Amino acid sequence: MPSTTDSQPRQNLAISAYQGLKRDITRGQFRPGEKLLMSTLKERYGLGVGPLREALSQLVAERLVVAISQRGYRVAPMSLAELHDLYDARSQLEAMLLRLAIERGDDAWEANILAKAHTLSRVMEVNGPDEVLDVWDSRHKAFHTAMVAGCNSPHLLQVRDSLFDQVERYRHLWLRETVFSESALEAKRQEHAALVEVVLARDAERASAMMCEHLMTPVPIITDTMRRQGLL
């Protein structure tokens, strides 16, 4: 029986493989429908078959990879139908969670929203466009998570996380069109400021409607980007 010390390095390798593969699929390094050859993956990530298979199995569960019977794995396809379904589901869920957060959130919840909004509005100088994207995306996620955290439902938040994972490939197409455009970023700043104002006023009905609309704005941008990049 393997010892705990033996299993820990293997687990770490599987996590490393999962994180690397997921990032590269999300960032478009592997295109939809592309076959994921084990020989290529071993060379790219410097890992063995075991950790890579574990990572691929996890990504199959997250619907980012498709297992082909006896023939390996492919990157899951992308489609307009999935784009619309994922964004509709995400916006409806987020609106519901925000409504619950407004009903249940306390002063600490309000303070955290203000803190995350302030941090998002002041993205620091960083080295290169990819780092700008990473910093803004991380702070943007933290801001939206702070908004709904007041719902105080770990199970609902877990569903939210799962849905977020599935939408990530589509989101990244929108991010690249937004983060590098000052006018697009300014529009997002104004939307976020308006959301904060309504949420702190505890206007649940208006806030949930605004959140739903806010989360659907990327859909036409992503649709256009997918067509330009030949992803349809």
TrEMBL record:
<dbReference type="InterPro" id="IPR000524">
    <property type="entry name" value="Tscrpt_reg_HTH_GntR"/>
</dbReference>
<feature type="domain" description="HTH gntR-type">
    <location>
        <begin position="11"/>
        <end position="78"/>
    </location>
</feature>
<dbReference type="InterPro" id="IPR036390">
    <property type="entry name" value="WH_DNA-bd_sf"/>
</dbReference>
<keyword id="KW-0805">Transcription regulation</keyword>
<keyword id="KW-0804">Transcription</keyword>
<dbReference type="InterPro" id="IPR011711">
    <property type="entry name" value="GntR_C"/>
</dbReference>
<dbReference type="InterPro" id="IPR036388">
    <property type="entry name" value="WH-like_DNA-bd_sf"/>
</dbReference>
<dbReference type="GO" id="GO:0003700">
    <property type="term" value="F:DNA-binding transcription factor activity"/>
</dbReference>
<keyword id="KW-0238">DNA-binding</keyword>
<dbReference type="Pfam" id="PF07729">
    <property type="entry name" value="FCD"/>
</dbReference>
<dbReference type="Pfam" id="PF00392">
    <property type="entry name" value="GntR"/>
</dbReference>
<dbReference type="GO" id="GO:0003677">
    <property type="term" value="F:DNA binding"/>
</dbReference>
<dbReference type="InterPro" id="IPR008920">
    <property type="entry name" value="TF_FadR/GntR_C"/>
</dbReference>
<protein>
    <submittedName>
        <fullName>GntR family transcriptional regulator</fullName>
    </submittedName>
</protein>
